[in-house]
Amino acid sequence: MASLKDLRNRIASVKGTQKITKAMQMVAAAKLRRAQMAAESARPYAEKMSQVLGNLAANLVGGVQGPRLLSGTGAEKTHLLIVCTADRGLCGGFNSSIVRLAREHIRRLTAEGKTVKIVTVGKKGYDLLRRQYRDQIIENRDLRGNKPVDYEFAAEIADSIISRFDAGEFDVATLFYSRFRSVIAQVPTAQKLIPAELPQAGATAPDAALQFEPNEETILDTLLPRNLTVQVFRALLENAASEQGARTGAMDSATRNAGEMIKKQTQIYNRTRQAMITKELIEIISGAEAL
């Protein structure tokens, strides 16, 4: 049985941990509001750009495949996976759920005889993947110098992806991130970037009198790289909101668990102290009777 001093030290230690987790929960909740607003603000622009590109692609003259970012290389032999996570932990299953989804894709592609290359954005994704796929990781970018995430950082990642595609290093690129839904719900998502997956043109599009200058293919050449940057930027913003949401929930659970542990240890301390007092009283009474 632990001594009273040990129990007091244990209770004090858990109380200190509880103060830390409570503070981290409050900080994460404050950051969440800003990150959520940024993610929700980016969604309409990214979705509208995809819709515009879908309309442009639908108006291409028959037989014209369009830019390579839209049509791809015609092969699916080499796949590039861009795995976006956080630089820090203590956020529940946020990082592991994204990496788990990426691992499932890697195993499936490998079983099909495909070549897989990996780009990691965020230290945690790199740490979790390098144990199994160190030789397949061709680039790693951390987020330590990019908080909050800005458009320029997303543009750097997108430019690197396009440069590798133009150099013939891969045929298909897929982006992995966590879509923010609420504080208790973040959805791991896989989005194909190259060839671009665009929504189908609306039902009223063919009847609309639209003219594109100079032509659809030229406009797509200009907008597709920008759309790739926008989609990467949106994914990073979704990740930032999901990370803070997951951390808020994780720290709330840790704070409540610490409270339950303090209550349990306090009960043990009181019972142990009462037992020691009772034992001393019995010894005193027994000694007095012996006299």
UniProtKB/TrEMBL annotation:
It comes from the Bacteria. It is a peripheral membrane protein. InterPro entries: ATP_synth_F1_ATPase_gsu (IPR035968), ATP_synth_F1_gsu (IPR000131), ATP_synth_F1_gsu_CS (IPR023632). CDD domains: F1-ATPase_gamma. The keyword Nucleotidyltransferase does not apply. Signal peptide: none annotated. It is found in: Cell membrane; Membrane. SUPFAM superfamilies: ATP synthase (F1-ATPase), gamma subunit. The keyword Protease does not apply. Produces ATP from ADP in the presence of a proton gradient across the membrane. The gamma chain is believed to be important in regulating ATPase activity and the flow of protons through the CF(0) complex. This is ATP synthase gamma chain.
